[in-house]
Structure formats: structure tokens, C-alpha cells
Give the backbone structure.
Amino acid sequence: MSTGTHGPAGDGTRAVRAGLPDPVTYEPPLPGPVFAAHYHLPGEPTGPYTYGRDSNPTWTLLERAVGELEAPGEPVETVCFASGMAALSAVLFSQLKAGDTVVMPSDGYQALPLAYERLRAYGVTVRTAPTADDAQLSLLQGARLLWIESPSNPGLDVCDIQRLADAAHRAGALVAVDNTLATPLGQRPLRLGADFSVASDTKGTTGHGDLLLGHVTCRDPALAEEVRRWRKVVGAIPGPMEAWLAHRSLATIQLRADRQCANALAIARALAERGEVSGLRYPGLPGDPSYPLASRQMRRYGGIVSFVLPDRAYAERFLGALTLVDDATSFGSVRSSAERRGRWGGDAVPEGFIRFSAGVEDEEDLVADVLRALETVARA
Ligand SMILES: Cc1ncc(COP(=O)(O)O)c(C=O)c1O
């Protein structure tokens, strides 16, 4: 039984069954990973499984599961990839050609400018504007694609996806939303008007910090087919083991997301009381600039909190004083992590800027660890 085709269900109920095949006696509920470069294929090369770069039964189940979470009860198509960047690139490079214009965020994930560079080299015009205040609206004239990242990484600004999508469609542009920070449980971009919901599933969607993966979900089968064809061309396919681990992880996505959100809110509240903290951002914190819009368009506010400590050395001492929080990049894991984002050089952030990813530890322990680390630095 798959909840995606059997009426409404809560997020947790849907997640534990998403993508599972109908029960077969003596078979496991989630079949193990299928390791295959090729399949027995006599005669005409047709059918669901032909060659390992084109299709794999383990991807099929994962893609079904992700689709059920992205758009419950709707006939969508999902294409999974070896990483989030592979998924992003598949949309950009399958949709854009020389002479086209794309509208991108100026404050999105730090590897996006690498894609801008490549697109420009291929003759695509790249226009950029910040996520806040729906600033991309003014750039849509003549565009072929609008790319939204909301909440933005690492600034946590939020834009009105429905408003931007409507305007983009009126201008004749397709719309893609990078949903990495929200995950399918936090936000449903297709319901908000997007043509492509894109994500790095390396983060909160799979949530254990042990694999890289990405996906693209579309309502329009023709768009999904173009994205799938791009995957075949560049071969950016997930390994069966990663795909299976991802599917296994989806069963707990609601538990993880709810705990991470609660922990992030508790951390944000604690940080709001501290004099050495400035620039605090969490979309779920009443008073945050993103809060009103996030409350309307998101189903959960996510597990990331951003804030600024006085300077680089202060931030490094803080990170070093934490005992329950790994000093590491990436986010969305069951284990809390934090990093001084400026160390990469790609984001327009102050030297003391911290991106904090709340895990699923006990709230009191996590808040106590953060406050103790701040006290340690303040006393030094
Ligand atoms: C918003 C966003 N999009 C895309 C990516 C790229 O994902 P991956 O590292 O899985 O390629 C990241 C990675 O941090 C991200 O934060």
C-alpha cells in the first residue's frame, strides 16, 4: 500500500510508507538496493530497466517516495541525482540555451556563481537580484527561467514564491525553486506555482550527513523527461546504495524535521537574549523579517539559524568551545553542526557570521551547550 494513492494522511504516516511497493509475501517492505550496470534484455531494448545509467529499481522507489512527499496525491515525476549540484545543473543546462535569459538569486548557495560563469560562457544572460523583498520581480521581462532559493542559504531571507511564479509565468518564464533548506516537509514549491522543485537531499531530506544526493520534481512529464535526458547525457546518477539509504532515511523525516525546528527555535530564542549576538535570523522567530511570509508559505521553518559574533576570532573560539555541535559545513543532519561561513569566501557575510544547523539532540542539552560556549568565550 502506498499512501500517495490512498487518500489523505499526516506527514509521518505518509513518510513511513512513501514509495513502498505493494506487499509481497516473504519480501521486505523496502526491497534492498539493486546493484546493476545492465539487466537481462533480450530483443528490442524497451521496458523500465535497460541500462544502469538510464534507470534502476532502487531509484524508482526513491523517486516515487520523494514525489509523494513533494506533492501528496498528485501525479508528479521525480528524477534523482548524484548530488544537489547535479540536480540544479540538470534544470539549468537542460532548459537554457545560447540567447536565453535566466533570473537567479544574488544571495543563493555559494556554488551558484560557478554555474553563472558556465552559463555566461555558453551565451546565456544571467541576471541576479536578492531574495528579500521579491527583488527578482523587476528582472523577469524576456526571461526563460526564474530560479528561486527560499529560504536563502545562508542569509535565511524568504520571498513570495506564488507571487514570483505568477509574474514569471505571465512573462513567459518557467520557475524553479531550490527547496533544500525547507525540505519537502517544510515547503511544497509545486503547490506554490513552481514548475521544478529542486533540492540537495544531502541535507535535511535524508538527514544523516552520510551521503550526497539531489532530486528534481515536476508536474509536467515533458519537463521531467528533459531533466532525465540531461542525467543520461552527463551521467550524474546516484549509486543504488545511496538511493536506498536515502529512502530508508525518509521514514523519519517528520520526526527529524519537527525536532530540528523545535531545537532551532529554542536556540534562536536563547541567542536573542545575548548582547554579543547580532544579525540573528530564523524564519520561525516572531519578529524576524522572514516570519510573516514564512508563516504563510512554509509548513515548517527549518533547522537553520544564522547569527553574527563580534569578529572572526570570537566566532572561532565559540565554535571551539561547543561540545555537542560539530564544527563542520553542510546542514540538516541529526547531529548539530555549525560553521563560520566566511571561511569559504563565497558568501557576502561578516567574518563572525555563523550558520548553525540544529540536530535532534535534546533541546535543553543543546541550548545549554550553546550558552556555555558563549559564556566561555565572553570570559576569556
Ligand atoms: C541551497 C543549496 N542548494 C544546493 C546545494 C548543493 O548540494 P550538494 O552539496 O548536494 O551538491 C547546497 C549545498 O549546500 C545548498 O545549500
Notes: The chain is about 35% helix and 15% strand.
